[in-house]
Design goal:
The structure is a single chain. With about 350 residues, this protein is an alpha/beta fold. It has 15 helices and 15 strands. The protein has 2 domains: about 260 residues, Alpha-Beta Barrel (TIM Barrel), CATH 3.20.20; about 70 residues, no CATH class. The radius of gyration is 19 Å and the shape is globular.
């Protein structure tokens, strides 16, 4: 699969997962094994016990500059390169974060090959990458309409089209590009979104469509590519790898989770988010959660803690707790098929299973 000037041996993109689920170890391992490893730029201030955060308050990176630490991101990319060399390597930057443009530039300065961006429409992404023409740009969309808006604005403002597009269906982990009701509707299933998005791509040229959300094994990959996808993005399945940067507690929460434990949650970001029901969610539902205090100023839709107070928890704090292995206070995102995760294997073995089948070691 070609993304801009970069060739990915296997059409498998590892989804960017933050805080700290896909950093140097996971992304580097995926890229060296022939997929596209993707570093999450979310919450890099937590990296290596916050040694790169400029300011720490109450054991949290303080404000967006520390939460999205340039020095930490640069170090994560450098360490991933030690694993994968010059194999293609990506960085995921959510549109909804504070300091979005600065973090995109930070990723480019630090040597990423590909920027993947969603959680909102990245209509101004090329503005921040104009000095880095070698960096491929990949927006995440949930509909043909969203892709049309992006292509139209990118062409009008920057004379540029996406180098690929990720189409994310409503079975993905974390934040959704759909309402609660749409997540359960047949017409919004990933399988039914591929054709209209593929048709929209043809209106603008020809670039890869990477399908995401609910894809678990070789059979799923083959089925979705038979419908017109050029590749797939997978997040949750890579949590079940030895190299995943998540804590062992995080991995075990998913391994223990049953299908009934995975649900759509209310998020301070304003979108539905899929994760595991844990003690945090139970406390929030009973309105017994800890007092909400905005320290890291993570995302613009939260409006400096207003959204967090409405939701009953701070998403930056709780994702940080999950990465650190705090099962009581952590927020554990997963795709709808996360309950299928029953073992921890190497990235090498997982890639082999995805390409050749589950019985291949």
């Amino acid at each position: 699969m070609k993304i801009g000037q970069y060739t990915i041996k296997f059409p498998i993109v590892q989804g960017g997962m933050g805080i700290g689920i896909s950093w140097d170890r996971l992304a580097g391992a995926v890229s060296i094994e022939g997929g596209l490893g993707v570093i999450s730029a979310i919450g890099t201030g937590y990296y290596q016990n916050m040694q790169f955060a400029e300011k720490v308050v109450d054991s949290r990176p303080y404000d967006a500059k520390s939460l999205y630490s340039f020095e930490a991101l640069k170090t994560i990319i450098k360490n991933a390169r030690k694993i994968c060399g010059q194999k293609p390597l990506g960085v995921n930057v959510m549109c909804a974060i504070n300091d979005y443009g600065r973090v995109v530039v930070d990723a480019c300065k630090s040597g990423t090959d590909i920027i993947i961006s969603g959680a909102g429409l990245p209509t101004n992404l090329p503005e921040f990458t104009e000095n880095y023409p070698r960096v491929a740009l990949v927006p995440i969309v949930s509909s043909a309409k969203a892709l049309r808006i992006i292509c139209k604005r990118w062409m009008q403002r920057y004379s540029r089209l996406p180098d690929a597009v990720v189409l994310e269906g409503p079975l993905s982990g974390g934040h959704q590009g759909f309402t609660y009701e749409q997540c359960a509707m047949e017409e919004y299933r990933l399988e039914n979104l591929i054709r209209p998005v593929k048709d929209e791509i043809r209106e603008w040229g020809n670039f890869p469509l990477i399908a995401a959300g609910g894809i678990w094994d070789k059979d799923d990959i083959e089925k979705i590519m038979a419908l017109g996808a050029d590749g797939v993005q997978m997040g949750t399945r890579f949590i079940g790898t030895c190299e995943c940067d998540a804590s062992e507690v995080f991995k075990q929460v998913l391994i223990r989770a049953g299908r009934e434990d995975i649900e759509l949650l209310k998020s301070p970001v304003g979108y539905p988010a899929r994760g595991v029901r844990t003690s945090l969610i139970n406390c929030v539902d009973r309105k017994e959660g800890a007092p909400v205090k905005c320290i890291s100023n993570c995302v613009t839709p939260c409006k400096r803690g207003k959204g967090a107070k409405e939701a009953g928890y701070c998403i930056a704090n709780c994702l940080g707790d999950a990465w650190a292995g705090d099962e009581e206070h952590g927020l554990f995102f997963t795709g709808a098929n996360g309950y299928k995760l029953k073992e921890i294997i190497s990235v090498k073995e997982l890639i082999s299973k995805l390409i050749y089948g589950e019985n291949r070691k």
